[in-house]
Specification:
7-stranded mixed β-sheet; binds flavin-adenine dinucleotide
Length: 527
């Protein structure tokens, strides 16, 4: 038996952030993870050839770069190897007809490009960013707050209701779809095509309520902060946090799966692992798990849990998955539009309607006919990722079914609908063919590929159920005060001393570690 002040289940970004604050305050902390090393979604490996380093899952550290945890610990993390590389040309889009555009971190240059694409549209960009920019401090504070706190209530009130008692402009826009927002602000379809696929990165479809809010957030974030990558790999974030935690006395225990949370007299007092080991927690247990695992497995034997919570946890909804093709390339990509050669992340898609079609096909469990693909080239910013003159590329098909009913194009035989080797190779061919139309040298430069299907993701991380990389649907009906489940008070479970963190809780997916921050601050403020 081992004893700690806090035991944390799972060692992803949220657990790492929570443990950083708790160990800094002198708490003894033990973190258990089923995987062989810390990081969860942060993992960098030479998947294909020596010298080619791929971010196996998450690759872009923007949310961590903007987080309070990074602001608080940047020097200590830098000393432990965390460096980020950024570009002034973070993102672009390439359409099948050869049209393309990109965003820079220079506001004036963006205005000029949008105006060049369609006269008059720069005013729409100004209006969209002005609207979200005016409330950005409150919005970002809420995205890192316990929504059950009085401060959060005050912020939500101010955001939603004006001094005259009427809905604010923010409230009027909050539930708009991405299509509503794009159509209201832009006439030209290329800038719409640039913005539309970003909602897939927040787990939304373009015609979903509240997706317009995320469209504006992405536009603002890309222009303000770019799209930084970790030097040496995204895992640098996890390595530096893990070193800081152990330097502060914390203990990370890999290859260890929690199977049960120990509850005595209504209070969480520890964790039992699959091997029967007991890790005692004198002050708190934090669980980076989804509600179905929490209530359906880890707390299954605990008496007195309200049936309503268990039912809500069972009904936790999963969203679309991701199909990922990593490529080792003999040379960097040469795009049809040469401006994209310098861009870190470019979507290949057929405009707003192309994104909507991909989303609908996925919802109907069809293999997307014309997949929207995000093309990331981190070696552009970080030469240590590939041998000299070569490149690594990540092709992210961000919206794809877990169980496939049929091919929307009617070409691929999907067999029994599971991700067989044949299905995965043939769909990877489609993804590569789609991108190759915009990158003529792509196919000739491929040295090797490594594919991750929704089924692979589910096996790699207990929180990516049904291959859902976002740990649960981020539809508005399962977000903010409704996340993880409406019957639970934010991150506090009905068991004293037991807290839920991770992407299944507010504020959802991403590397910022915000739920870890929220819960660590609750614990430290409460003493
Ligand atoms: C392909 C892909 C690309 C992505 N790209 C980005 C990106 O570029 N930028 C970004 O910000 N986000 C990205 N994300 C999302 C991001 O990776 C996740 O939202 C984030 O990692 C979630 O962090 P977390 O703290 O919830 O824990 P996770 O990273 O999900 O880690 C949870 C850990 O807990 C462990 N665990 C679960 N249950 C148990 C148990 N019972 N016992 C022991 N261990 C357990 C799991 O094995 C896992 O290691 C991406 C995700 C995927 C899949």
């Amino acid at each position: 038996m081992q004893n700690y002040d806090a035991v944390i289940i799972g060692c992803g970004p949220n657990a790492l952030v929570a443990a950083t604050y708790l160990t800094k305050a002198g708490w003894s902390v033990g973190i258990l993870d089923r995987n062989d090393r810390p990081g969860g979604g942060l993992r960098t490996d030479e998947l294909i050839r020596p010298g080619f380093k791929h971010d196996v899952y998450a690759g872009f550290l923007i949310l961590f770069a903007l987080s309070r945890a990074y602001a608080d610990f940047a020097p200590q993390l830098g000393e432990r190897g965390l460096q980020m590389a950024n570009s002034d040309k973070p993102a672009g889009v390439a359409l099948p007809d050869g049209r393309a555009t990109l965003i820079t971190t220079n506001a004036e240059a963006n205005m000029a490009e949008i105006e060049r694409l369609c006269a008059g549209d720069s005013a729409g960009w100004g209006a969209m960013l002005g609207g979200i920019g005016a409330v950005a401090p409150q919005v970002f504070e809420l995205l890192a707050s316990d929504l059950t706190s009085p401060r959060a209530k005050e912020l939500m009130d101010d955001l939603m209701v004006g001094p005259d008692g009427l809905p604010t402009p923010f409230a009027k826009n909050f539930l708009l779809t991405a299509r509503d927002v794009l159509d209201a602000n832009f006439k030209g379809d290329v800038w719409k095509a640039f913005l539309a696929p970003w909602v897939l990165h927040s787990g939304h479809g373009p015609d979903e309520a509240n997706a317009g809010f995320w469209t504006a957030i992405f536009g603002l974030g890309l222009q303000m902060a770019g799209l930084p990558v970790g030097v040496g790999g995204a895992e640098a974030q996890a390595i530096a946090l893990a070193k800081l935690i152990t330097d502060q006395g914390g203990v990370i225990i890999p290859n260890t799966t929690a199977s049960k949370i120990l509850v005595e007299n209504g209070r969480a007092v520890g964790v039992v692992t699959e091997d029967g080991e007991e890790y005692r927690a004198h002050r708190a247990v934090l669980a980076t798990v989804n509600p179905d695992q929490l209530y359906g497995k880890l707390l299954a034997d605990v008496p007195g849990i309200p049936a309503e919570l268990t039912q809500q946890a069972q009904a936790f909804r999963y969203g679309g998955s991701v199909f990922f093709v990593h490529l080792a390339l003999s040379e960097p990509p040469q795009w049809v539009d040469e401006r994209l050669n310098a861009v870190t992340y470019t979507h290949v898609c057929d405009g707003l309607d192309g994104v909507a079609k991909n989303y609908l096909e996925t919802n109907a469990n069809l293999l997307p006919s014309d997949p929207v693909v995000g093309v990331g080239v981190p070696s552009l910013l970080d030469p240590s990722r590939a041998p000299e003159g070569a490149a690594v590329m990540a092709l992210q098909q961000l919206c794809c079914p877990y169980q496939v009913k049929a091919d929307a194009r009617g070409e691929i035989n999907v067999g029994d609908g599971t991700w067989s080797d044949d299905l995965k190779e043939r769909y990877a061919d489609r993804v590569i063919d789609t991108v190759a139309k915009s990158i003529p040298n792509l196919k000739s430069s491929i040295l090797g590929r490594y594919i991750l299907t929704p089924a692979d993701l589910e096996k790699r991380n207990l929180n990516w159920t049904k291959g859902d990389w976002a740990s649960g649907s981020h539809a508005i009906s399962q977000s903010f005060t409704l996340r993880p489940i409406p019957g639970q008070k934010g991150h506090r479970t009905p068991i004293d001393g037991l807290f839920q963190i991770g992407a299944a809780t507010h504020p959802g997916l991403g590397l910022a570690g915000a739920s870890g921050l929220i819960v660590s601050q609750m614990l430290l403020n409460e003493g």
